[in-house]
Amino acid sequence: MKNKIISAAVLSVFAATAHAQSSVTLYGLIDAGIVYTNNQGGSSAWQEQSSMLSNEVWGLRGSEDLGGGMSAIFRLENGFNLQNGRTTYSGTMFGRQAYVGLQSDKYGTLTLGRQYDAVVDELGAIALANNGDGNNLAAHPFDNDNVDDSFYINNSAKYVSPTYNGLQAEVQYGFSNAAGGFSNNRAYSVGATYSNGPINLAAAYLQLNNGGLTSSGALTSNDFVSFPAARQRVMGAGGNYTYGPAVVGLLWTHTLFDNTQPGENSVIAQPFDSLHFDNYEVNVHYAVTPSISLAGAYTFTQGAFSGSTGSADPKWHQVTLMADYSFSKRTDVYLEGVYQHAYGADGTAFEGAYINGLAQSSTSNQVAATVGIRTRF
């Protein structure tokens, strides 16, 4: 009898230990507010909107300790719209992220599934459009470089290295999964970051082949692809510097599209033989107190396109200012304003200003202001 009691006690200890070494977490973020825009299609608008700053999500993430510094990990993440309860990506349950993999302290992390690309992972942390929880209104025009994670890569294998002396790298490949069409609608990306004290540097490259033009593959027509194209390439580099309560960031991205075709979620319903954008951003964050923070960014975007309707060199100036007050670690309120001026493309589809997340202005200027609340769980 005594041996049975001892055995039961030992087993209960092992069970408690195993439970402690594994975890599953339910998490999420809700963002809603009131938005005023001076011009959307020729009229001003007052709207209740969601995800003006941060994408609304709920998800599950978990890990299991396998011993020897290795863990099994997973993430299942759904995007949704609070105003109508619909999922962001129709026909999906976990349209934002869905992956499983292995994580090793010594060898790095390998994951398989629907995932962020290297541009989002490495450059997103530097841009105001995706700093921390995100800032969607501040995205570069049309989110042409995907720094604001408008789309994700399906069927992808991603490896992220451990950090060596401040340097970390990642590589990703998204399979087309098409028999006899290995390179049709595939994607690949690489990136690296280097951190040393107050300095953080990053660079990344992403390429898509026929992304967003088919119903299957690495990037489908169900994703929010601004300009579905035979080939899309994004490259960029930047960094930020922390000085006391202030963080100053600089970012450059260059995006090239070959043979674009209007798709389900295209922002401009017009084909182009060639289209490219250069985005130059400077931003600053300042923590006034532990509860109050201020942020701002200026972005200059220079574009060029050619096609059957002609060619032009559109340009955009965009300024974003934001103030945030945190009631707690979970809940904050914010006030943000964005001004955009577009020029250089009169008489073309790019003629009007077009702040991300809103409808296009009928003039070269657009102003938007929003006040809202975010809470996390």
From TrEMBL:
Molecular function terms from GO: porin activity
Topology class, membrane: Multi-pass membrane protein
Localization (cell): Cell outer membrane
Domain Porin: residue ranges: 8-340
Keywords: Cell outer membrane, Ion transport, Membrane, Porin, Signal, Transmembrane, Transmembrane beta strand, Transport
GO BP, one annotated term: monoatomic ion transmembrane transport
Major site of localization recorded for this protein: membrane
Cleaved signal peptide residues: 1-20
UniProt keyword S-adenosyl-L-methionine, yes or no: no
Pfam families: Porin_4
Gene Ontology annotations for the cellular component aspect, listed alphabetically: cell outer membrane; pore complex
Coiled coil regions in record: none
Subunit structure: Homotrimer.
Protein name per Swiss-Prot or TrEMBL: Porin
Source species of the chain: Trinickia violacea
